[in-house]
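Archive entry. Fields below.
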Amino acid sequence: MKHTVLVVEDEQDTADLLKCVLEREGFSVLHAGDGRQASTLVDTIRPPSLVLLDMVIPYVNGFELLGVIRRHPDWQGVPVIMLSADYYEPDIQRALREGATTYVVKQPGLQNLIQAIAHVLPPPVPTAPALDQAVVKPPSPAAHNRRASVRHQRRSGQGKRKAA
Amino acid sequence: MEHAQPPQADDASTEIVSVDASFEPLVPKFMTNRKKEVVVMQEALTTNDFDTVRKVAHGMKGAGGSYGFDRISEMASAIEQAAKAGNASPIARDLPALSSYLDRIKVVYE
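PREDICTED_STRUCTURE:
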């Protein structure tokens, strides 16, 4: 089953990039374009696996929305990764103090974000077909016997060559 | 062993920027929006609307950094700082430079 990630990001091109990168990594993505819209989602939908929260968003800023999430009985345990364009230590400390799981500065390609997500989320549970493909089935008794027979013949052949 | 040559600029004024190939469908809109934002900031500056300049520059800084347009991000950051300080003259100087830079970018996907 896919993890669902709620992306709270007001800059549309950045939101599009996050969606592109996250879907490529196998996540299902929800998007809120501002803090007010995100607050509504907190009150109306089931909690996602993860929230990516831009620090500077309109109406309800990132810190306020983090508080809304941490006070909500169903959402309080959801990991929240705060995103920012800046590496500003006081903001990082405040975000962590107020309940952010971690803090990521936007960098080219967002590889650092993908690494942070890997630390925060367990790997997605594979769907049924993927599980079937992933399972290495034990050999059937017939196949085992065929291989044993081949080994036996090889050993026999070697013996014959030595004897010759 | 043959080594790949770095992309060469068409002329001295072209700015080559390498971007992740998987972002290619998104980049034309990204570039168009950055050019529109320069116009928005220029208009805001005429009325000393530093709050709009600051917000737009902040968004541009983050978007530029995420896509790999580091120079855009740097220039937007300088404009954002000047807007925070309410200092019009560096913004008036930097916006045309940013506009010119955007016009000279040639994106190479890798």
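CURATOR_NOTE: Chain B has a mean pLDDT of 90.
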